Amino acid sequence: MAKSLLIVDDSATMRKIVIRTVRMSGLDFDRTEEAGNGAEAIEKLKQSPVDIVLCDVNMPEMNGIDMVKKVRAELPTCANTKIIMVSTESSQDLIDSILREGANGYITKPFTPERFQEKLSPFMN
Ligand SMILES: [Mg+2]
């Protein structure tokens, strides 16, 4: 069954790379949206929840950690939304704390289509 995806990153170029990598991974999304920071993502999710969010950590206005906290605390319509962080930040402490806040996975940059396939396919059923 096709799923919906929201890509959150302050770099438009990185969003394009993520979109291309998702396509190469063979995962099937019927709707893909983009947001430039956590606040923009929250607004989009309020309008229309998605199945999976791929989210950068370091972003202006609202970073990825604050976004995860806010989605989990304030958006019950997104209770089933899976949030996968995509970041160059690879400290285990940071990863652990983001997962504790309610993120469902973590992919470090640079990434491959195989990595996306591995991390996202459990949530594609
Ligand atoms: Mg960034």
Q: Give the name of the CATH architecture.
A: 3-Layer(aba) Sandwich
SSE order: EHEHEHEHEH
Helix/strand class: alpha/beta
Bound molecules: magnesium ion
Instruction: Examine the coordinates and then state which fold CATH places here, giving the name of the CATH topology.
Output: Rossmann fold
Task: Count every beta strand, where a strand is a DSSP E run of 2 or more residues.
Answer: 5
Describe the structure.
With about 120 residues, the protein is α/β, with parallel strands linked by helices. The chain has a single domain (about 5-125), classed as Response regulator (Rossmann fold). It has helices at about 10-25, 40-45, 65-75, 90-100, 115-120, and strands at about 5-10, 30-35, 50-55, 80-85, 105-110. α1 crosses α5 and α2 (about 40-45) packs parallel to α3. The longest helix has 14 residues, at about 10-25. The protein binds magnesium ion. Magnesium ion (MG) binds next to loops. Magnesium ion (MG) binds near residues 9, 10 and 11.
